Structure formats: structure tokens, C-alpha cells
Amino acid sequence: LTISAVYSSEGLILNYVALFTEITQMKEHQQQLEYIAHYDVLTNLPNRVLLAVRLDQAIQQCHRHQRSLAVVFLDLDGFKDVNDQYGHDIGDQLLITVSQRMQNALRTSDTLARIGGDEFVAVLEDLENIEDCEPLLLRLLQAASEPISIDHAKMHISASIGVTFYPQDKVDADQLIRHADQAMYTAKQFGKNRYHMFDTIQDHALKTLQKHIESVHTA
């Protein structure tokens, strides 16, 4: 609402003119753009952008409350076979179903994001001990491996999961996701449908060895 005064030649106010503008559609469009910027259109899960925000916030909470968090990288086993056999429409419905099941398997304080294709990242916050996340990991595996029926077709997939912990893994948010991704590939190599913990001690030893080799070469 914009209100303007109308003056006479003597400078006296004669009346007011009110201009109303309907902005509902503009506001709705703005909200839609904000939603698309932060959420995956297919599954309605947070996307990479919102995941980065949530993970940064979770790291800050770790410092305040002296707790740990887990970064969990999930990749669906057998999803490509479903796409090849049944088509992308069925594949999309499978992604929606599995994402809902996995989200229901987590706590309300946790974040599950889809970062592309059949890859997901979960942030499990407020862990007093790193062992506290194991029941959640088992529930994620169960949620991904339960049979799914779509259009009379019954499908079976599973998930390979990689996990790393902060602040035990003392790296930034991007590197935490990379370490969890690396652990996920190890889970696939060990037979899929399982989780694998990132080995921070081994990683630190390898980096120390690499720095030593580089220093020898430059000496």
C-alpha cells in the first residue's frame, strides 16, 4: 500500500491517493525460487547448498556442546539396473520411496540430503559417543534394502555407506564429505549393503608419508 498526499496551489492537503498492489503471486514465486535453491525437486530433501549450511551449523554445535557428529555418504547399489530395466520414471519413483524411508529412519535432528543421482549424504548430530550412530546406520541399510513394488514390479536394491566423524576427523566440511565418500567406496569393495568407517589414523599416516616424500624430492 502506497499513500500519497494531493496538495492545493496554496500548499494545503486536499486529499490522499492510495495505491494498492497485489503481491501474492510475486511472493509465491519468490518462495518457489528459494525452495528450488535449497531443496531437491524430486525427493524434496535438502540439496548440496542446504547441506553445506546444515553441516557448518552442526560443526559449530560440536564445538559448543563438546559432542561429535557423523557425516554419512550413501550410494544405492543396483539403482542403475533398475533404470536400465524399467526406465527413468520408475527409477525416479524408487528414489522418492527410498529417500522417504531413509528419512524416516533418522531422528528429527538429523539431515538427509540428496546430492545427485542415487547419492545421499546424512549428517547425524549430537553424538555423545561415535558408537551411538551405529543403530542409525543399520536402520538406513534396512530402509534401503526393503523390497519396493512399483507398477506391479518388485525391486530389490541396497546401499553402501561410508562414515566419518567430527571432530575426530579434524578437517573442514568439504573434506568430511570426501572422506565419507572414500569410505563408501571401500564398503562397495567389501561387498555392498554395509557401512565402513573412514580410518583417520591411516589417512594421517599416509599424508605424513606423502609430505616426507615431497620434502625429500625438493631437498
Describe the structure concisely.
By secondary structure, the protein is α+β, with helices and mostly antiparallel strands.
Task: Report the sheet-strand fraction.
Answer: 25-35%
List the secondary-structure elements in sequence, H or E.
Answer: EEHHEHHEEHEEEHEH
The value of Rg in angstroms is 25 Å
Principal-axes shape call: extended
Oligomeric status of the shown chains? single chain
Number of strands: 9
Count of helical regions: 7
- Major β-sheet profile: 5 strands, mixed
Task: Give me the secondary-structure category.
Answer: alpha+beta
In order across it, which strands form the biggest sheet? 4-5-3-8-9
Low-confidence stretches: none
Helix proportion range: 40-55%
Gap from first CA to last CA: 73 Å
What is the typical, i.e. mean, pLDDT?
90
Structure characteristics:
219 residues; alpha+beta; 5-stranded mixed beta sheet; two-stranded antiparallel ribbon; 9 strands
Any overview of this molecule?
The chain has about 220 residues and is α+β, with helices and mostly antiparallel strands. The protein has helices at about 25-40, 50-65, 80-85, 90-105, 135-145, 175-190, 200-219, and strands spanning about 1-5, 15-20, 70-75, 110-115, 120-125, 150, 155, 160-165, 195. A 5-stranded mixed sheet has the order 4-5-3-8-9, sandwiched between helices. The chain has a two-stranded antiparallel sheet with strand order 1-2. β1 and β2 form a beta hairpin. The model has no long low-confidence stretch (mean pLDDT about 90).
